[in-house]
Each structure stands twice: as C-alpha cells, then as structure tokens.
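Here is one record:
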Amino acid sequence: MDTKHEQIVAYMIREVEEGHIRPGHKLPSIRAVAHMFSCSPNTVVHAYQTLEREDVIYAVSKSGYYLVEGKVRSHTRTESGPIDFASTTPRGDFLPFQQIEHCLRQAISLYKEELFGYTDPQGIANLRNELRKHFHAQQIFAQPGQIVVVTGAQQAFSILTRMPFPGEGQAVLVEQPTYFGFLAAADVAGCPVIGIQRDDQGIDLGELEAHFGSGQIKFFFTVPRFLNPLGTSYSLEQKKRIVELASKYGVYIVEDDYLADLEEDAKADPLYALDDGKQVIYIKSFFQDNSSGDSNGCRHPPRTTCRPVHKLQERCGHSVADPLPRRAGAIHEEWDV
C-alpha cells in the first residue's frame, strides 16, 4: 500500500493530467488536502515539496503552491552515446535545465526587486554560508567572511594576477604544463610568469625551494589534482612539503581544484586543508551552463589578503546586479550540494 505521501503526489499528478488543475492555478490548501487524506499537514507539505523538486509546482511565499506553466512532470534524463571529455562544456542533454529554471523561479519569488539590485561584492551572505557547510565536508574549514563568490575561476585569476601581495615578489610561478586560461589572465595583467617543470612524478622540490627563496615570487599557481594533460596528482608528502616551503619563505599558493569532484580518494585533501588558511588561496569551480556561458566559482583567500581581494573586486565592478549567485544559492539550499 502506498504511503499517504505517495498517495498525495499521485493524486496531484492525476489532477494535473486530467486538467482539473491548470498552469498558474493555485493548488488546494495544505489544510484541505490534509483533511481529504486524513493525514497531518506535515505530510502534505512533504508531498508538495516532492512535486516542487520535480518542477511540477512552485511555491509563492505567503500565498501557496501553483502549477508550473507548460509542464506536467519532470523527465528523466537518459544517457545515449559517448560523453566527450575534450570540452569543459557539458553536453546539452546533460544540463539540468528544469532545476535551473526551478531555482530561478524561486529566486524571483524570494528576492523580487532585490534580485536586480547591487549585491555584496564578496557574494550573497546566505550563499557563502551554504558554501561554508559544503566545504567543511571536504576538510576546508573556511568561514563565510573568507569566501568570495565570483562568476568563474577566470575572474579569480584576473583579480589575483592584478592585486598586490605581501612581500616584494612580482612574478608568478607556474607548473609546466599549466592551464592556458591562467597564462592568458597573467598576460593581460602584465604579470611576469616563471615556469617550473612538472611530470608524472611531480616537481623538483629543491628547484621549488630555490624559486621561493629568490624573493621574486608573489604566488605559486598550481593544479595539484589531475593536472591536464598529465592527469596526475601530487602525493600527500609532496603537498605537505609544498605548503611547508610556502610558509617558510612567505610565498602564497593559488590552488586551482576544479576537478575535486572527480576524486575517489576521501583522504586526498587539498593544499588548503594542510595549510590552515594561512598561505593558500583555494579556487573551486562549481558548474558551467552553456546556455548562457556562465559559471560560478569561489575562492578562499587567507585573512591577510581578504581586504585587497574585496577592494579590487569592488573596483572592477563585480558588485553589479547578478541573479546567477542567487541562482547558485538556491541550488545549494535546495539540493544541499
């Protein structure tokens, strides 16, 4: 026998399919449905939330639940054909368009006119708080005040290559090979770049120490996990030594951990987790939406660099109205990713 929750969901779907509830029309009240099925209001709320997650209905604050225009039920995505990993852009049929639409609708309902106003250049507070919870599960213990939300890692690279760092170093040390997008950002910023060879065994730590001790380096840009095109990661011992050297010589590390979600080893912590947030700036990308070319990322600057990061971000005009961080906030709150 179906549970009350399942009965309510099936009943509402049937009402929609038979045309008794039309798009834009309000669903029966929670109290009325609870009386109809002889159940508690909480059971009805749970059933409505299930329909909301499936993008069948949407909630309007202090009003009720309404049927989504033009939709009856969400469709399950099916896999067909090979997946091309040569591009960072997801295949069109793999993008969660209905969930994104659902989150946008929620954002409009919750924020209304605030949605298109100026926002905190550091990122909306509730989003940063959700990110704090998310990162804690990955051994990244940053507080909301240390998190900066950007519209993609490339924006973070642009800001970091332009801003001054403590010390006299002006050049950026990069692995060879490295991410071409970072090199492009450094070139536009007029930031000198010095290379250090990396192979499937890692880098020469003696050479790294020589660079750090030269006084020329303001930060070391690294992709410790699954560096493209090598596909290799640093060992735990190598990570610890890199962090030790950075601390010894006062050199900052910019850690691009964009493939962290593909890691299968639960003990493979990022450099940031080994550093306690003193020398490592952690950059993480979350998703890319090829329908608009937008992506969301965030970075965790150490406390000593927080103020210049925020100031440069604000001066560069990154506090303009942007519904995308709010959309990301809805995603984090709804699916707790």
